[in-house]
Design goal:
317 residues; mainly alpha; 4 domains; 0% strand
Amino acid sequence: MTDLNRHLERWLHEGIVSAEQAELMRQSLVADSAEPDGRHEPERRIPLVTEILGYVGAALAVWAVMFMAMEFWEKLNDWTQASLFAGLSLVLFVAGAALLDALEPAIKRLSAVLWSASVVSLGGMVFIISDAVAGYDEPLTWSLIGSIAALAAGFMLWRQESTTQHVTLFAATIIAIASLLALGPNPDFFFYGLVVWVFGLVWAAASRFGLLRPRDPGMVLGSLSMLVGAQMAVDDSGLSTAGVLLGLATAGLLAGAGIVLREKLTITLGGIGIFWFIPQAMFHFFGEAMGAMFGLLISGVLLIGLATWFARHKEVL
């Protein structure tokens, strides 16, 4: 397998095969070299504990450098600070790009982490220029940070489909949307919740139909955004009737869509929504003591129903 990986790395570098073709070739040759009893020699990969220790060590080193940099950071002018962030972002981007076509999973994960750190550094540069140099107010500054970071993260996700890159793009987009909303008039909290809910729905749908990859992280992030948006709508001036109904509809939509589409994670998030919103609805419509207990009873019954459905249909999930 060592010789095989060396050849595949060279072919990747020379453009003879793509990363996907190299992975398929590697898997095919591993299967062909299996023992007669179906077993084959495990691949030599970086142990998980080694990878974790490496990240912890790197994090400690970064914190140490940041602490030492604080001693002279304030003495630097704004453009020098922005230039340091820009240089760091470029170095991290180039380092991640150099590891992009590696076959070793741990190296590919490192590449994704480096690119995400590059996006964060880019955001630091935009913050210095927008806030300290241009003197923009806070909403405009953060809207620029989120928008530019989302563009960079979107390009990186297009080049490397990874969970880390997907989460980075999601976070940057959320920052951009929230900041842009803060630039306008101040509507009620229900409106903000509804925007977050619609954003989550669009994100989950785009992930489900392959427009955003990997699919599962996108489905989870979009569904969570819908639940958070519904809760924001509920908290509009106390328990909002429209918000409560939106929360119930969201929980039902996620659970129902998960069952129809055979998506375990979506069903689970729908179950969490049922457990969370039904007691609030009972409290809102029927009062404190009885409403809360009745809501817990209904939540329990529905969750038992979901568990029973899981058990009866485990072969198709």
